[in-house]
Amino acid sequence: MFQMETETIALNESLCNTMYIGISDGDYFMENSCYSIESMWDEEKKIFLNKALVKVSYVPTNISDALHREDVIRKMQRCLIDVSKNLAPNNIIVYGKMGTGKTMITKLVLNDLEKVAAKKRVKLTTIYISCEDANSENGVLGLINNNLMFELLGKFREKIGNSISRNTFNFKKLFNELDGILIIVLDEIDKIKNPDLINKLARSISEKTGQPPCLICITNDINFKDDLKGHTKSVLAESEIQFNPYNAEQLNNILDARVEKAFYPGVVVDMVVPLISALCAQENGDARKAINLLCKSGEIAEEKLKNVIKEEDVREANDRLELDRLTSIIETLPTQSKLTLLTASVLSENSPKNECTTGEIYNIYKQYAHLIDIDILTQRRITDLISELDSLGIINAIVKSNGRYGKTKVISMQGSKQIIRHVLLQDYRLKSLEGNLLQNCFRNNLN
DNA sequence: ATTCCACAGGAAGCGACGGCCC
DNA sequence: GGGCCGTCGCTTCCTGTGGAAT
Question: What is the pTM of this model?
Fold first, then answer.
């Protein structure tokens, strides 16, 4: 242990001594040669035994490796059992919050089903489509056709950019040529702007088999089905499978299983896994986040050249992931939302209770918008932007009544104000508000 | 019990824009 | 190329709301 600490001190010293001489066109030079990737490459590997197992993209190969999902696996298998009778199973809608294992379990169950079908000589084709990648009805149809083409001819279609009617025609043609049962998984179906596609696909009947395709629609949005039109809703209402969030104990078991295979023995100290489970269970029971946090903690320990992961590494990893999350959300916001957020941040920082109201935000927002020469939106629109920021988890907005003094939304910041401010001021239009201007504007409002 | 405030948020509509289709 | 249609960002108008003040 003493040796480890000495190593850490030595590294910190070398960090301090390193001097960047010049950075140009993405190329840089450093005086200290210990930063070559070769020295990093040759370092003794002390933390990860098999890092791939704590990557979010990792999917277990065996269905028994999916812990605490026996009930939904059973239910999905029961829904799909018609394949054994050479019949297309009922359509399935799978919903649950992020990180509850919807995609992983669906893929595992289908892999298993394919193996059994092959053994029993039942012709089965499964297609997995991530609607986030395609995001339009036509895009999804194109991807399905590509997969069918691959299944029938062993090659992908080269031409892209067909119209919807052309792609619909192609789908029917390819589907008619396909022998056996077709199962199409539409992951993140809520990302498709026009979900009439579900109806179109579900009502297609293969001339060869007389069967429709089976659709498995996966969504994070519990209200997704309620927003569909009547006929589409009835098509999807056949079978529903809900994935509940994992609790702390379940997350604990999932992490323990990964720790055992992914890290060298003794690397993860006793309190690390319970801490990660508790942090993730108190949010959404998100297993993906828990595994990501475990991986990041390991990387931080590795960075520090330590051979154990401690609680402080988990907390640091949690902060870094939170920073990444906030940065990626804020960077993609439109200018008007950024300005609304900046105003809320300044006002809450200057308030004794660290909070502000819609009316206060709107007054300062108008001044800022005028200063940076952008359109001044109506208060009605700003209330919508505040609600959007609230649903993104950047601010916390609660409707509160002040009796005779009216009803308003009380807004407080979620996460570090400094980080939010820093990311916002990267925007060149908001940068001009940096410094005294923010304070001056605030004082004007008070006066 | 009634009044009143400062909004929240629903509904309808407008203009810009992009994709599709003939 | 032009018409059609859906979507998006926004405005205007409106009703509803909780609770302190009267």
Answer: 0.73
